[in-house]
Amino acid sequence: MIYTITANPSIDYVLQLKDLTTGKVNRTTSDVKLPGGKGINVSRILKELNIDSTALGFVGGSTGEMFKSLLSQHELKTDFTNVHEDTRINVKINAIEQDEETEINGTGPAISNEEKTSFLKQLESVGTGDVVIMSGSLPKKLPDTFYLDIAKMIQENGADFVIDTTGQALLDTLPLHPLVVKPNHHELAELFNTTFNSDQEIIDHARKLLDKGAKHVLVSMAGDGALLVTKDHAYKANAPKGVVINSVGAGDSMIAGFAGTFMKNNDPIESFHIGAACGSATAFSQDIAVKEKIDEVYKAISISELS
Ligand SMILES: Nc1ncnc2c1ncn2[C@@H]1O[C@H](COP(=O)(O)OP(=O)(O)OP(=O)(O)O)[C@@H](O)[C@H]1O
Ligand SMILES: O=P(O)(O)OC[C@@]1(O)O[C@H](CO)[C@@H](O)[C@@H]1O
User: Fold this and answer.
1) Which of 86, 130, 252, 287 is catalytic?
2) Which residues of 88-107 are buried (b: 16+ CB within 10 A; e: fewer)?
3) Whole-prediction pTM
4) ipTM surpassing 0.95, yes or no?
5) Strand locations in 210-277, DSSP E?
6) Is the shortest distance between the CB of 10 and ligand 2 below 6 Å?
7) Which domains does the chain have, with CATH numbers?
């Protein structure tokens, strides 16, 4: 079973307007509320790919009820821990004529010790053959090491894990051999305090993450596609042409496509192809991509070997 952990889920309030002027009243041309949070997005893509997962996380208050109701139409398996304080609302502003996306994410509820303990109890049965995908910010009062501590615990029981994180937190996960890490090219450059001028430079730095323990490294590059780097090979997926509607969740979609497929077939290249299709398909959709869009985009992506 794949478990996704979204410690800090959200209602994503996605607003579209022509242009955004700060300090003024702006009016939307359309607005939708979506059940958000990185692990939730991963579970939603897995569902589209017909791969079972259970979504875990902390949900509370009246916004939590709305979040669950928004999510219910997607028919995911969930096992949320109820908390006292409200689930957050994240505001996503797509200013069409400015071609600009602005996000304002809330801090989320404070999690009490009892709520945290009850959540962790759920993970005691996770073991060999399971994968736990953890992503997104932490709500108030959870320790910075929350995801890392979970990785240590479930790994001792034989499970695989993915933590979608950046910076030092990403480096800290590597000795535990995560199934995959997926920095974007800017995040990878920041990790090594450098800038990249070629794919080869990106590949060389991605290999350092393999040397430190990652089992697979994907480097996402938004409209420039993505790289899959293994010890001896590197592959590039093109970003197909299309109209970008809302790229929020493209990275989550790519992780879901890669990890979910790899669990099934152990084939990193096909997993990469599907991951790239999920990422672009989400960028070309207002919400997280649906199966038909993923299939359409898959056909427009080719994987080429670079080195
Ligand atoms: N504009 C785009 N056109 C085509 N494909 C895209 C576009 N943006 C993203 N993708 C696809 O989705 C993948 C992941 O996107 P991106 O690199 O933006 O991840 P990210 O930085 O983790 O994003 P986010 O945090 O917004 O989810 C890219 O590698 C690419 O394959
Ligand atoms: O504040 P976090 O937890 O870092 O990110 C949360 C979030 O921006 O990530 C998802 C897209 O990746 C959205 O659904 C959600 O609103």
Assistant:
1) 252
2) bbbbbbbbeeeeeeeeebbe
3) 0.96
4) yes
5) 217-220, 226-229, 234-237
6) yes
7) 1-164 (3.40.1190.20), 166-307 (3.40.1190.20)
**Cβ-contact 91, 62 below 8 angstroms:** no
Those residues with Cβ within 8 angstroms of residue 151's Cβ, 6 or more apart along the chain or in another chain: 132, 134, 161, 163, 173, 176, 178
**Rounded CA separation 150/39 (Å):** 15
Q: What is the pLDDT along the chain (307 residues), one digit of tens a residue?
A: 999 999 999 999 999 999 999 999 999 999 999 999 999 999 999 999 999 999 999 999 999 999 999 999 999 999 999 999 999 999 999 999 999 999 999 999 999 999 999 999 999 999 999 999 999 999 999 999 999 999 999 999 999 999 999 899 999 999 999 999 999 999 999 999 999 999 999 999 999 999 999 999 999 999 999 999 998 899 999 999 999 988 889 999 999 999 999 999 999 999 999 999 999 999 999 899 999 999 999 999 999 999 6
Ligand 1 pocket: which of 137, 188, 224, 247 to mutate (most atoms <8 Å of CB)? 247
Of 261, 228, 269, whose CA–CA distance to 45 is shortest?
261
